[in-house]
Specification:
The complex is a heterodimer of chains A (about 280) and B (about 260). Chain A is built from seven helices and ten strands. With about 280 residues, chain A is an alpha/beta fold. Chain B is globular, with a radius of gyration of 23 Å. The chains are: A alpha/beta (about 280), B mainly alpha (about 260).
Chain lengths: ~280, ~260
Protein backbone atom coordinates (compact mmCIF):
# COMPACT_ATOMS: atom_id res chain seq x y z
CA UNK A 1 0.00 0.00 0.00
CA UNK A 2 1.48 3.41 -0.91
CA UNK A 3 2.02 5.63 2.13
CA UNK A 4 -0.24 8.43 0.84
CA UNK A 5 -3.20 6.02 0.96
CA UNK A 6 -2.86 5.70 4.72
CA UNK A 7 -5.38 7.93 6.50
CA UNK A 8 -4.12 10.09 9.32
CA UNK A 9 -4.61 9.29 12.98
CA UNK A 10 -8.24 8.85 14.06
CA UNK A 11 -9.89 12.16 14.84
CA UNK A 12 -9.73 12.98 18.56
CA UNK A 13 -13.26 14.46 18.75
CA UNK A 14 -15.94 11.77 19.04
CA UNK A 15 -18.07 11.03 15.98
CA UNK A 16 -21.73 11.97 15.92
CA UNK A 17 -22.55 8.40 16.97
CA UNK A 18 -19.97 7.07 19.35
CA UNK A 19 -18.81 3.73 18.01
CA UNK A 20 -16.67 1.41 20.03
CA UNK A 21 -16.73 3.10 23.43
CA UNK A 22 -16.03 0.41 26.01
CA UNK A 23 -16.77 0.93 29.67
CA UNK A 24 -15.99 -1.56 32.40
CA UNK A 25 -17.38 -0.83 35.85
CA UNK A 26 -16.42 -2.54 39.12
CA UNK A 27 -15.64 -5.83 37.46
CA UNK A 28 -14.73 -8.79 39.68
CA UNK A 29 -14.10 -12.30 38.45
CA UNK A 30 -13.12 -15.40 40.34
CA UNK A 31 -12.60 -19.04 39.49
CA UNK A 32 -13.61 -21.96 41.66
CA UNK A 33 -10.50 -24.04 42.19
CA UNK A 34 -10.82 -27.15 44.32
CA UNK A 35 -14.04 -25.91 45.92
CA UNK A 36 -12.43 -22.58 46.81
CA UNK A 37 -13.16 -19.31 45.10
CA UNK A 38 -9.98 -17.63 43.91
CA UNK A 39 -10.24 -14.04 42.63
CA UNK A 40 -8.56 -13.43 39.26
CA UNK A 41 -9.77 -9.93 38.53
CA UNK A 42 -10.63 -7.32 41.12
CA UNK A 43 -12.18 -3.88 40.88
CA UNK A 44 -11.48 -3.34 37.21
CA UNK A 45 -12.66 0.09 36.02
CA UNK A 46 -11.82 1.20 32.56
CA UNK A 47 -13.18 3.47 29.85
CA UNK A 48 -11.86 3.09 26.31
CA UNK A 49 -12.67 5.85 23.84
CA UNK A 50 -13.96 5.11 20.34
CA UNK A 51 -11.14 4.40 17.87
CA UNK A 52 -8.60 4.32 20.67
CA UNK A 53 -5.83 1.73 20.79
CA UNK A 54 -5.30 0.51 24.34
CA UNK A 55 -2.63 -1.99 25.35
CA UNK A 56 -2.69 -4.08 28.49
CA UNK A 57 0.55 -5.39 29.95
CA UNK A 58 1.18 -7.43 33.04
CA UNK A 59 2.84 -10.56 34.36
CA UNK A 60 1.23 -13.88 33.54
CA UNK A 61 -1.52 -14.66 35.98
CA UNK A 62 -2.83 -11.11 36.11
CA UNK A 63 -6.01 -12.15 34.33
CA UNK A 64 -5.42 -10.23 31.09
CA UNK A 65 -6.71 -13.01 28.85
CA UNK A 66 -9.61 -13.70 31.19
CA UNK A 67 -10.61 -10.06 30.91
CA UNK A 68 -10.74 -10.34 27.11
CA UNK A 69 -12.82 -13.53 27.32
CA UNK A 70 -15.35 -11.63 29.45
CA UNK A 71 -15.44 -8.66 27.09
CA UNK A 72 -15.91 -10.82 24.00
CA UNK A 73 -18.76 -12.61 25.75
CA UNK A 74 -17.47 -16.18 25.99
CA UNK A 75 -17.80 -16.15 29.78
CA UNK A 76 -20.72 -14.43 31.49
CA UNK A 77 -19.90 -15.47 35.04
CA UNK A 78 -18.64 -12.27 36.69
CA UNK A 79 -19.72 -9.38 38.85
CA UNK A 80 -19.84 -5.80 37.58
CA UNK A 81 -20.66 -4.40 34.20
CA UNK A 82 -19.22 -4.33 30.72
CA UNK A 83 -20.84 -2.00 28.21
CA UNK A 84 -20.10 -1.26 24.58
CA UNK A 85 -21.57 2.08 23.48
CA UNK A 86 -23.82 1.96 26.49
CA UNK A 87 -25.18 -1.48 25.68
CA UNK A 88 -24.61 -4.20 28.24
CA UNK A 89 -22.52 -7.15 27.03
CA UNK A 90 -24.42 -10.43 27.18
CA UNK A 91 -22.89 -13.23 25.12
CA UNK A 92 -20.93 -12.92 21.93
CA UNK A 93 -21.73 -10.37 19.26
CA UNK A 94 -20.42 -9.47 15.84
CA UNK A 95 -19.76 -5.98 17.25
CA UNK A 96 -16.87 -7.45 19.23
CA UNK A 97 -14.13 -9.33 17.37
CA UNK A 98 -11.16 -11.14 18.84
CA UNK A 99 -7.79 -12.42 17.65
CA UNK A 100 -6.11 -15.08 19.79
CA UNK A 101 -2.45 -15.94 20.20
CA UNK A 102 -3.05 -19.13 18.24
CA UNK A 103 -4.60 -18.04 14.97
CA UNK A 104 -7.52 -20.50 15.27
CA UNK A 105 -8.03 -20.71 11.54
CA UNK A 106 -9.80 -23.92 10.63
CA UNK A 107 -7.23 -26.26 9.06
CA UNK A 108 -9.86 -27.70 6.69
CA UNK A 109 -10.70 -24.34 5.13
CA UNK A 110 -8.72 -22.18 2.76
CA UNK A 111 -7.74 -18.69 3.85
CA UNK A 112 -10.65 -17.30 1.85
CA UNK A 113 -13.16 -19.73 3.38
CA UNK A 114 -11.85 -18.99 6.85
CA UNK A 115 -12.40 -15.27 6.39
CA UNK A 116 -15.80 -15.79 4.78
CA UNK A 117 -16.91 -17.92 7.71
CA UNK A 118 -17.10 -14.76 9.82
CA UNK A 119 -19.79 -13.42 7.47
CA UNK A 120 -22.09 -16.48 7.69
CA UNK A 121 -23.82 -15.14 10.79
CA UNK A 122 -24.38 -11.69 9.26
CA UNK A 123 -27.04 -10.43 6.88
CA UNK A 124 -24.46 -9.36 4.30
CA UNK A 125 -25.90 -10.46 0.92
CA UNK A 126 -24.13 -13.39 -0.74
CA UNK A 127 -23.11 -11.36 -3.83
CA UNK A 128 -21.18 -8.91 -1.67
CA UNK A 129 -19.35 -11.43 0.49
CA UNK A 130 -16.64 -12.32 -2.00
CA UNK A 131 -15.79 -8.65 -2.50
CA UNK A 132 -15.65 -7.92 1.23
CA UNK A 133 -13.51 -10.98 1.85
CA UNK A 134 -11.13 -9.98 -0.95
CA UNK A 135 -10.86 -6.45 0.45
CA UNK A 136 -9.91 -7.69 3.89
CA UNK A 137 -7.40 -10.20 2.54
CA UNK A 138 -5.84 -7.30 0.66
CA UNK A 139 -5.93 -5.17 3.82
CA UNK A 140 -3.67 -7.65 5.62
CA UNK A 141 -1.44 -8.00 2.54
CA UNK A 142 -2.29 -11.63 1.79
CA UNK A 143 -3.43 -11.21 -1.79
CA UNK A 144 -2.47 -14.30 -3.78
CA UNK A 145 -2.89 -16.67 -0.82
CA UNK A 146 -6.69 -16.91 -0.95
CA UNK A 147 -6.66 -20.62 -1.77
CA UNK A 148 -3.91 -21.58 0.70
CA UNK A 149 -4.66 -23.83 3.66
CA UNK A 150 -3.47 -22.67 7.10
CA UNK A 151 -0.63 -25.21 7.24
CA UNK A 152 0.74 -23.66 4.06
CA UNK A 153 0.99 -20.21 5.69
CA UNK A 154 3.81 -18.98 7.91
CA UNK A 155 3.02 -18.00 11.50
CA UNK A 156 2.94 -14.30 10.67
CA UNK A 157 0.73 -14.83 7.63
CA UNK A 158 -1.69 -17.01 9.59
CA UNK A 159 -1.93 -14.36 12.28
CA UNK A 160 -2.64 -11.67 9.68
CA UNK A 161 -5.31 -13.95 8.21
CA UNK A 162 -6.86 -14.24 11.67
CA UNK A 163 -6.86 -10.43 11.88
CA UNK A 164 -8.62 -10.26 8.50
CA UNK A 165 -11.25 -12.73 9.71
CA UNK A 166 -11.81 -10.71 12.89
CA UNK A 167 -12.16 -7.44 10.94
CA UNK A 168 -14.41 -8.67 8.15
CA UNK A 169 -17.57 -8.12 10.20
CA UNK A 170 -16.37 -4.56 10.93
CA UNK A 171 -16.58 -4.92 14.70
CA UNK A 172 -16.77 -1.74 16.72
CA UNK A 173 -14.24 -3.23 19.12
CA UNK A 174 -11.38 -5.56 18.26
CA UNK A 175 -9.78 -7.51 21.09
CA UNK A 176 -6.28 -8.84 20.58
CA UNK A 177 -5.11 -11.54 22.99
CA UNK A 178 -1.31 -11.64 22.67
CA UNK A 179 -1.78 -11.80 18.91
CA UNK A 180 1.94 -11.68 18.18
CA UNK A 181 3.11 -13.74 21.15
CA UNK A 182 3.94 -16.84 19.11
CA UNK A 183 5.88 -15.06 16.38
CA UNK A 184 9.64 -14.73 16.07
CA UNK A 185 11.20 -11.32 16.77
CA UNK A 186 11.53 -10.18 13.15
CA UNK A 187 8.03 -11.27 12.11
CA UNK A 188 6.70 -9.60 15.23
CA UNK A 189 8.07 -6.20 14.28
CA UNK A 190 6.67 -6.64 10.80
CA UNK A 191 3.18 -7.58 12.01
CA UNK A 192 3.26 -4.76 14.58
CA UNK A 193 3.77 -2.29 11.73
CA UNK A 194 0.96 -4.00 9.81
CA UNK A 195 -1.31 -3.82 12.82
CA UNK A 196 -0.66 -0.10 13.22
CA UNK A 197 -1.41 0.48 9.55
CA UNK A 198 -4.59 -1.65 9.71
CA UNK A 199 -5.81 0.14 12.83
CA UNK A 200 -5.26 3.51 11.18
CA UNK A 201 -7.13 2.38 8.07
CA UNK A 202 -9.94 0.66 9.99
CA UNK A 203 -10.54 3.11 12.85
CA UNK A 204 -12.16 0.60 15.15
CA UNK A 205 -11.40 0.53 18.84
CA UNK A 206 -8.68 -1.95 19.70
CA UNK A 207 -7.75 -3.49 23.02
CA UNK A 208 -4.59 -5.57 22.98
CA UNK A 209 -3.17 -7.79 25.66
CA UNK A 210 0.57 -8.38 25.42
CA UNK A 211 3.52 -9.21 27.62
CA UNK A 212 5.84 -7.16 25.44
CA UNK A 213 6.09 -3.65 26.94
CA UNK A 214 7.77 -2.24 23.85
CA UNK A 215 4.94 -3.52 21.65
CA UNK A 216 2.33 -2.15 24.05
CA UNK A 217 3.93 1.31 23.88
CA UNK A 218 4.55 1.31 20.17
CA UNK A 219 0.89 0.62 19.37
CA UNK A 220 -1.08 1.94 22.32
CA UNK A 221 -2.56 5.39 22.83
CA UNK A 222 -2.63 4.25 26.44
CA UNK A 223 -0.98 1.38 28.20
CA UNK A 224 -2.70 -0.29 31.13
CA UNK A 225 -0.30 -1.88 33.57
CA UNK A 226 -1.82 -4.73 35.57
CA UNK A 227 -0.56 -6.48 38.68
CA UNK A 228 -1.27 -10.15 39.38
CA UNK A 229 -2.97 -12.21 42.12
CA UNK A 230 -5.64 -10.99 41.81
CA UNK A 231 -5.47 -8.99 38.58
CA UNK A 232 -5.83 -5.27 39.20
CA UNK A 233 -5.16 -2.16 37.19
CA UNK A 234 -2.03 -0.71 38.69
CA UNK A 235 -1.40 2.24 36.47
CA UNK A 236 -2.54 3.76 33.19
CA UNK A 237 0.16 5.34 31.05
CA UNK A 238 -0.71 7.90 28.37
CA UNK A 239 1.49 7.63 25.28
CA UNK A 240 1.17 11.09 23.83
CA UNK A 241 2.65 10.48 20.38
CA UNK A 242 0.87 10.59 17.02
CA UNK A 243 0.65 7.51 14.79
CA UNK A 244 2.43 6.23 12.80
CA UNK A 245 5.17 6.15 15.37
CA UNK A 246 8.90 5.90 15.26
CA UNK A 247 10.16 3.04 17.39
CA UNK A 248 13.28 5.02 18.30
CA UNK A 249 11.36 7.89 19.87
CA UNK A 250 12.95 8.70 23.26
CA UNK A 251 9.55 8.95 24.97
CA UNK A 252 8.83 5.31 24.15
CA UNK A 253 12.13 4.27 25.70
CA UNK A 254 11.65 6.34 28.81
CA UNK A 255 8.14 4.94 29.34
CA UNK A 256 9.39 1.43 28.71
CA UNK A 257 11.96 1.75 31.49
CA UNK A 258 9.32 3.16 33.81
CA UNK A 259 6.81 0.40 33.13
CA UNK A 260 9.42 -2.34 33.38
CA UNK A 261 10.53 -0.97 36.74
CA UNK A 262 6.92 -0.95 37.84
CA UNK A 263 6.32 -4.52 36.68
CA UNK A 264 9.44 -5.91 38.29
CA UNK A 265 8.93 -4.06 41.56
CA UNK A 266 7.12 -5.71 44.46
CA UNK A 267 3.35 -5.66 44.90
CA UNK A 268 1.80 -2.20 45.14
CA UNK A 269 -0.13 -2.42 48.40
CA UNK A 270 -0.24 -5.80 50.05
CA UNK A 271 3.33 -5.88 51.28
CA UNK A 272 4.48 -8.81 53.35
CA UNK A 273 3.28 -11.27 50.74
CA UNK A 274 5.38 -14.21 49.69
CA UNK A 275 8.39 -13.06 47.79
CA UNK A 276 8.31 -16.08 45.54
CA UNK A 277 5.25 -16.23 43.38
CA UNK A 278 4.39 -19.21 41.30
CA UNK A 279 3.09 -17.97 37.96
CA UNK A 280 -0.56 -18.95 37.86
CA UNK A 281 -1.73 -20.39 34.59
CA UNK A 282 -3.80 -18.04 32.56
CA UNK A 283 -7.22 -19.21 31.58
CA UNK A 284 -7.59 -20.00 27.91
CA UNK B 1 18.35 -48.84 5.44
CA UNK B 2 15.38 -46.58 5.03
CA UNK B 3 13.01 -46.73 2.10
CA UNK B 4 12.74 -43.28 0.50
CA UNK B 5 9.25 -41.81 0.75
CA UNK B 6 9.06 -40.58 -2.80
CA UNK B 7 9.65 -43.91 -4.51
CA UNK B 8 7.81 -44.12 -7.86
CA UNK B 9 4.72 -46.28 -7.68
CA UNK B 10 6.16 -48.88 -10.06
CA UNK B 11 9.09 -49.42 -7.73
CA UNK B 12 6.79 -49.61 -4.70
CA UNK B 13 4.65 -52.20 -6.50
CA UNK B 14 7.73 -54.28 -7.33
CA UNK B 15 8.91 -54.13 -3.72
CA UNK B 16 5.48 -55.20 -2.49
CA UNK B 17 5.52 -58.17 -4.85
CA UNK B 18 8.80 -59.60 -3.58
CA UNK B 19 7.46 -61.40 -0.47
CA UNK B 20 4.49 -62.99 -2.31
CA UNK B 21 6.86 -64.25 -5.01
CA UNK B 22 9.16 -65.74 -2.38
CA UNK B 23 6.17 -67.31 -0.62
CA UNK B 24 4.98 -68.91 -3.88
CA UNK B 25 8.45 -70.26 -4.64
CA UNK B 26 8.67 -71.82 -1.19
CA UNK B 27 5.17 -73.24 -1.60
CA UNK B 28 6.04 -74.80 -4.92
CA UNK B 29 9.21 -76.36 -3.47
CA UNK B 30 7.11 -77.92 -0.70
CA UNK B 31 4.53 -79.23 -3.17
CA UNK B 32 7.27 -80.82 -5.28
CA UNK B 33 8.99 -82.40 -2.30
CA UNK B 34 6.57 -85.31 -2.67
CA UNK B 35 5.41 -87.72 0.02
CA UNK B 36 2.93 -86.61 2.64
CA UNK B 37 3.55 -82.96 1.82
CA UNK B 38 1.84 -83.23 -1.56
CA UNK B 39 -1.48 -83.72 0.22
CA UNK B 40 -1.05 -80.48 2.18
CA UNK B 41 0.60 -78.32 -0.48
CA UNK B 42 -1.14 -78.33 -3.86
CA UNK B 43 1.26 -77.45 -6.65
CA UNK B 44 0.90 -74.10 -8.34
CA UNK B 45 -0.08 -75.88 -11.55
CA UNK B 46 -3.09 -77.61 -9.97
CA UNK B 47 -4.12 -74.38 -8.28
CA UNK B 48 -3.88 -72.67 -11.67
CA UNK B 49 -6.12 -75.32 -13.22
CA UNK B 50 -8.66 -74.95 -10.43
CA UNK B 51 -8.61 -71.18 -10.85
CA UNK B 52 -9.23 -71.47 -14.59
CA UNK B 53 -12.11 -73.89 -13.95
CA UNK B 54 -13.75 -71.62 -11.40
CA UNK B 55 -13.37 -68.62 -13.65
CA UNK B 56 -14.68 -70.42 -16.75
CA UNK B 57 -17.73 -71.84 -14.97
CA UNK B 58 -18.54 -68.38 -13.60
CA UNK B 59 -18.54 -69.78 -10.07
CA UNK B 60 -15.77 -67.51 -8.88
CA UNK B 61 -17.42 -64.37 -10.22
CA UNK B 62 -20.73 -65.46 -8.69
CA UNK B 63 -19.11 -66.09 -5.31
CA UNK B 64 -17.20 -62.82 -5.35
CA UNK B 65 -20.32 -60.86 -6.32
CA UNK B 66 -22.45 -62.52 -3.64
CA UNK B 67 -19.89 -61.87 -0.89
CA UNK B 68 -19.15 -58.31 -2.04
CA UNK B 69 -22.85 -57.48 -2.22
CA UNK B 70 -23.45 -58.79 1.29
CA UNK B 71 -20.38 -57.10 2.73
CA UNK B 72 -21.16 -53.73 1.15
CA UNK B 73 -24.86 -53.87 2.04
CA UNK B 74 -24.01 -54.67 5.66
CA UNK B 75 -21.29 -52.01 5.68
CA UNK B 76 -23.70 -49.45 4.23
CA UNK B 77 -26.34 -50.15 6.85
CA UNK B 78 -24.03 -50.62 9.83
CA UNK B 79 -21.69 -47.79 8.89
CA UNK B 80 -24.52 -45.31 8.39
CA UNK B 81 -26.29 -46.27 11.61
CA UNK B 82 -22.99 -46.29 13.51
CA UNK B 83 -22.12 -42.81 12.24
CA UNK B 84 -25.58 -41.49 13.11
CA UNK B 85 -25.48 -43.06 16.58
CA UNK B 86 -21.96 -41.70 17.14
CA UNK B 87 -23.12 -38.17 16.29
CA UNK B 88 -26.18 -38.48 18.51
CA UNK B 89 -24.22 -39.81 21.50
CA UNK B 90 -21.53 -37.16 21.09
CA UNK B 91 -23.99 -34.26 20.90
CA UNK B 92 -26.58 -35.30 23.44
CA UNK B 93 -25.61 -36.01 27.01
CA UNK B 94 -29.02 -37.57 27.53
CA UNK B 95 -28.60 -39.96 24.63
CA UNK B 96 -25.18 -40.94 25.93
CA UNK B 97 -26.47 -41.61 29.45
CA UNK B 98 -29.49 -43.47 28.15
CA UNK B 99 -27.95 -45.59 25.40
CA UNK B 100 -24.23 -45.61 26.22
CA UNK B 101 -24.23 -48.46 28.78
CA UNK B 102 -26.43 -50.70 26.63
CA UNK B 103 -24.29 -50.19 23.55
CA UNK B 104 -21.10 -50.76 25.54
CA UNK B 105 -22.52 -54.07 26.77
CA UNK B 106 -23.62 -55.15 23.29
CA UNK B 107 -20.18 -54.34 21.97
CA UNK B 108 -18.71 -57.06 24.18
CA UNK B 109 -20.54 -59.77 22.22
CA UNK B 110 -18.27 -60.96 19.41
CA UNK B 111 -19.64 -61.01 15.89
CA UNK B 112 -20.01 -64.80 15.93
CA UNK B 113 -21.93 -64.64 19.19
CA UNK B 114 -24.88 -62.99 17.44
CA UNK B 115 -25.11 -65.63 14.75
CA UNK B 116 -27.21 -68.28 16.54
CA UNK B 117 -29.76 -65.68 17.63
CA UNK B 118 -30.04 -64.05 14.23
CA UNK B 119 -30.22 -67.47 12.54
CA UNK B 120 -33.17 -68.28 14.77
CA UNK B 121 -34.90 -65.02 13.96
CA UNK B 122 -34.06 -64.50 10.31
CA UNK B 123 -33.09 -68.01 9.13
CA UNK B 124 -29.70 -68.85 7.68
CA UNK B 125 -30.09 -66.73 4.54
CA UNK B 126 -29.07 -63.19 3.61
CA UNK B 127 -31.16 -61.64 6.40
CA UNK B 128 -29.01 -63.09 9.18
CA UNK B 129 -25.78 -62.64 7.32
CA UNK B 130 -26.31 -58.99 6.44
CA UNK B 131 -27.47 -58.28 10.01
CA UNK B 132 -24.29 -59.74 11.49
CA UNK B 133 -22.18 -57.80 8.99
CA UNK B 134 -24.06 -54.61 9.81
CA UNK B 135 -23.50 -55.15 13.55
CA UNK B 136 -19.78 -55.69 12.90
CA UNK B 137 -19.56 -52.44 10.94
CA UNK B 138 -21.75 -50.52 13.38
CA UNK B 139 -19.45 -50.39 16.40
CA UNK B 140 -16.20 -49.16 14.85
CA UNK B 141 -18.20 -46.50 12.99
CA UNK B 142 -19.99 -45.47 16.19
CA UNK B 143 -16.97 -45.40 18.49
CA UNK B 144 -14.71 -43.46 16.14
CA UNK B 145 -17.40 -40.96 15.13
CA UNK B 146 -18.17 -40.34 18.78
CA UNK B 147 -14.49 -39.91 19.67
CA UNK B 148 -13.95 -37.70 16.63
CA UNK B 149 -16.70 -35.25 17.55
CA UNK B 150 -15.87 -35.20 21.25
CA UNK B 151 -12.21 -34.38 20.59
CA UNK B 152 -12.93 -31.31 18.44
CA UNK B 153 -11.15 -28.62 20.41
CA UNK B 154 -13.04 -26.10 22.47
CA UNK B 155 -10.96 -23.26 20.97
CA UNK B 156 -12.48 -24.09 17.58
CA UNK B 157 -16.00 -24.23 19.01
CA UNK B 158 -15.38 -20.81 20.59
CA UNK B 159 -14.73 -19.42 17.10
CA UNK B 160 -18.18 -20.68 16.07
CA UNK B 161 -19.72 -18.89 19.05
CA UNK B 162 -17.80 -15.67 18.39
CA UNK B 163 -19.09 -15.49 14.82
CA UNK B 164 -22.64 -16.38 15.90
CA UNK B 165 -22.94 -19.45 13.69
CA UNK B 166 -26.20 -21.37 13.88
CA UNK B 167 -26.17 -24.92 15.26
CA UNK B 168 -26.42 -26.45 11.80
CA UNK B 169 -23.51 -24.32 10.54
CA UNK B 170 -21.41 -25.20 13.57
CA UNK B 171 -22.03 -28.88 12.94
CA UNK B 172 -21.38 -28.77 9.21
CA UNK B 173 -18.40 -26.39 9.24
CA UNK B 174 -16.66 -27.14 12.53
CA UNK B 175 -17.70 -30.39 14.21
CA UNK B 176 -17.96 -32.60 11.16
CA UNK B 177 -14.71 -31.58 9.43
CA UNK B 178 -12.93 -31.60 12.79
CA UNK B 179 -14.14 -35.14 13.40
CA UNK B 180 -13.60 -36.31 9.84
CA UNK B 181 -10.15 -37.91 10.27
CA UNK B 182 -11.48 -40.19 13.02
CA UNK B 183 -14.81 -40.77 11.27
CA UNK B 184 -12.90 -42.05 8.25
CA UNK B 185 -10.69 -44.22 10.46
CA UNK B 186 -13.90 -45.69 11.84
CA UNK B 187 -15.35 -46.33 8.40
CA UNK B 188 -12.10 -47.94 7.22
CA UNK B 189 -12.23 -50.24 10.20
CA UNK B 190 -15.94 -50.86 9.66
CA UNK B 191 -15.33 -51.91 6.08
CA UNK B 192 -12.63 -54.39 6.99
CA UNK B 193 -14.78 -55.77 9.83
CA UNK B 194 -17.68 -56.10 7.38
CA UNK B 195 -15.50 -58.05 4.97
CA UNK B 196 -14.32 -60.42 7.71
CA UNK B 197 -17.89 -60.84 8.96
CA UNK B 198 -19.14 -61.58 5.45
CA UNK B 199 -16.68 -64.44 4.96
CA UNK B 200 -17.19 -65.64 8.54
CA UNK B 201 -20.97 -65.83 8.37
CA UNK B 202 -20.81 -67.59 5.00
CA UNK B 203 -18.50 -70.26 6.40
CA UNK B 204 -20.70 -70.75 9.47
CA UNK B 205 -24.13 -70.59 7.85
CA UNK B 206 -23.05 -71.99 4.49
CA UNK B 207 -26.03 -70.85 2.49
CA UNK B 208 -26.74 -68.57 -0.45
CA UNK B 209 -23.36 -68.87 -2.17
CA UNK B 210 -20.29 -66.72 -1.67
CA UNK B 211 -16.56 -67.08 -1.10
CA UNK B 212 -17.04 -68.38 2.45
CA UNK B 213 -19.55 -70.99 1.32
CA UNK B 214 -17.13 -72.24 -1.35
CA UNK B 215 -14.36 -72.41 1.26
CA UNK B 216 -16.57 -74.51 3.49
CA UNK B 217 -17.55 -76.82 0.62
CA UNK B 218 -13.92 -77.15 -0.49
CA UNK B 219 -13.00 -78.26 2.99
CA UNK B 220 -15.63 -81.00 3.11
CA UNK B 221 -14.61 -82.15 -0.37
CA UNK B 222 -10.92 -81.90 0.52
CA UNK B 223 -10.33 -79.68 -2.51
CA UNK B 224 -7.14 -77.95 -1.44
CA UNK B 225 -6.71 -76.26 -4.83
CA UNK B 226 -10.20 -74.74 -4.80
CA UNK B 227 -9.71 -73.60 -1.23
CA UNK B 228 -6.48 -71.79 -2.07
CA UNK B 229 -8.00 -70.05 -5.08
CA UNK B 230 -10.83 -68.77 -2.91
CA UNK B 231 -8.47 -67.63 -0.16
CA UNK B 232 -6.36 -65.75 -2.70
CA UNK B 233 -9.44 -64.04 -4.15
CA UNK B 234 -10.70 -63.16 -0.66
CA UNK B 235 -7.35 -61.58 0.18
CA UNK B 236 -7.18 -59.70 -3.10
CA UNK B 237 -10.72 -58.32 -2.84
CA UNK B 238 -10.27 -57.30 0.79
CA UNK B 239 -7.03 -55.58 -0.13
CA UNK B 240 -8.73 -53.76 -3.02
CA UNK B 241 -11.57 -52.54 -0.77
CA UNK B 242 -9.01 -51.21 1.68
CA UNK B 243 -7.07 -49.42 -1.06
CA UNK B 244 -10.24 -47.76 -2.33
CA UNK B 245 -11.21 -46.40 1.07
CA UNK B 246 -7.63 -45.28 1.73
CA UNK B 247 -7.62 -43.24 -1.46
CA UNK B 248 -11.00 -41.80 -0.61
CA UNK B 249 -9.66 -40.81 2.80
CA UNK B 250 -6.60 -39.10 1.35
CA UNK B 251 -8.83 -37.13 -1.02
CA UNK B 252 -11.25 -36.03 1.69
CA UNK B 253 -8.42 -35.02 4.03
CA UNK B 254 -6.38 -33.16 1.42
CA UNK B 255 -6.24 -30.16 3.78
CA UNK B 256 -4.04 -32.01 6.25
CA UNK B 257 -0.32 -31.29 6.11
CA UNK B 258 1.62 -34.16 4.54
CA UNK B 259 2.94 -36.56 7.13
CA UNK B 260 0.42 -35.56 9.79
Amino acid sequence: MPPEAIPLAPSPEPLAQPRGALTITDLDKSFAIGGQSRPVLEAINLAVRPAEFVSIVGASGCGKSTLLRLIVGLDADYAGEIRLDGERVTGTSLDRGIVFQDHRLFPWMTLEQNVELALLGTDVPKQQRARIVAEHIALVNLKGFEKAYPHQLSGGMAQRAAIARALVTEPRLLLLDEPLGALDALTRVHVQNELQRIWMAQRSTMLMVTHDVEEALYLGDRVIVMSPNPGRIRRIVEVDLPHPRDRRHPLLHRLKDEILAELTAGPASDAGNNLVRLPAREER
Amino acid sequence: MSVPRALPWQARLMLGLVPPALLLAWWQSQAQAGGARAAVFASLATIGVAAREQIASGALLGDATATLTRALTGFGIGGTLGFAAGVLLALSRWAERLLGPLLQAFRQVPMIGWLPLFALWFGTGDGSQVTVIAVSAFFPALLNTHAGIVQVERRFLDVGRIYRLRAVQRFRLILLPGALPLVLTGLTQALSFAWIAAIGTEILLGSGGGLGVTLQTAQTEQRLDAMLVTIAVTAALGFALNQIIRHLRARLLHWQPVGA
